[in-house]
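Below is how a single chain appears once it has passed through the pipeline. First comes the sequence as given, then the structure the pipeline wrote out for it. We keep one example in the README because the format questions we get most often are answered faster by looking than by reading.
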Amino acid sequence: MNADELQIGNVHNLQWLWIVLVVLLLGVISLFWQRKAAKRFASSEMLARILPLGGVYRSAVSLVLVIASMVLLVFCMVDVRWGKVAREVPQSGIEVMFVLDVSRSMMAEDVTPNRLERAKQMIKDTVDEMAGDRVGLTIFAGEARQQIPLTNHYDDFKQSLDEVGPSSLNRGGSRLGDAITVASRGFLEVTNDHKAIVLLTDGEDQESRPLVATKSAKSKNGVRIFTIGLGDLVKGARVPVQSSRGSDYLTHSGKPVWSKLDGATLEKIAAESGGAYIPAGTKQVNMADVYHRYIASVDQTEFEIAKVDSYEARFQWFLVPALVLLLLEVLWMRGRSNVATEPGRSIDAD
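Resulting structure:
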């Protein structure tokens, strides 16, 4: 059996082996002190008759049986599995396309650590609540591109999400309409209303007609759009950039550029598509509540049946021997008791 064919379900239960070790030590100490105490009240010749080596041997065997049984029970609790078995599992859920703004304004630090990193974490928190949904990623700035096709491999999705940033696209700017159009074309199925777009942005747009794109996505693809606005709504924040002088801030015509959250546009997009607008602003948002209250309300659909490899539980391989050893220990100790009380056995007096 190869190591990659072995799976341990509850490795933390191995800590119970410390209890087994304590019982073993106490048992050994008990045997030692039992014989030492007997020596105080009997001569060596008498001790050999009232406490023969056979008695110590039987106690030692009893202790070994108990310890072995306890070890097997611990491995039973650890849930050791091996042997892959392919099972067909029906898949159901919704298709969620996350649309992430990676423009330079998302680097503003009115949200800790910045708007972009906060948006990524919000996406991850949402994915953590999913079970069976398909997720994809579209990124946009002055252009839009589908970065991750729809998938249910969540770990791979989150790993790819970490790699995106302002340098992922060649054109700067912010075109919401183009992003919605590209995202709506990324769904695997055209029919059925089981599709949702989750748009994370500060709402800035360069006349890309996002409401027109929203109407088209809703009418042609049945897409509902949930918008999440990030950034300070009143004061805004300056946009940091890297230059030859080190860290600096974006300027236009010699004046500093301030980026604010445009919640009005995002609210209109959500209302037009039958979705919802979440004004995150600069606050922490519980994305578990957002998912279950809003996104999960989208009608689910049946996906194709998937083959899932699972490992066979083998706890019975440890449980049965453990119970057998306990039974043997009981029978062993009962036999010892019968020998000790057998009629006719007496100690001859000198």
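The chain has two domains: 3-85+311-340, 92-304.

See the next section for the split statistics.
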